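[Meeting: bench + compute handoff]

Bench side (C.D.) handed over the final construct sequence. Compute side (W.E.) agreed to return the predicted structure before the next meeting so the bench team could plan truncations. Sequence as handed over:
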Amino acid sequence: MKCIRDWYREQPRWVRRTNILALIILAVSLATAMAKSTPELSAIAWHYRNGNFIAVNGVRFPVYYWYTPHGYERGSGFSVRDFPGPLRPGNDSFT
C-alpha cells in the first residue's frame, strides 16, 4: 500500500516545485490578511473573555460580535468603535 509521501516523490520535479511555491504564496497571503485584521482578532478575543454583554452601573448592554468596547473600566462608561478589516466587509448594515 502506497502512502502519500511515496506518491508525492513519484511526481515530476516541476510539479513538486509548483506545489511548494503555491504553499508559500498561500502562507504569505494568509499572514498578510491576519496582520491587517487586528481589529477583528481583538474583537474575537474580547468576546471570548467577556461574552456578548457589557455592564455599566448595573445595566447590561449588548456588544455585537465584530465590535470591541474601548475605554471600558468596570462600572464606568464605554464607547464602541468599528474598524472593519479584511475578515469583514466595510459596507455591512451596522457600520
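W.E. noted at the follow-up: The radius of gyration is 22 Å. C.D. will use this when planning the next construct.
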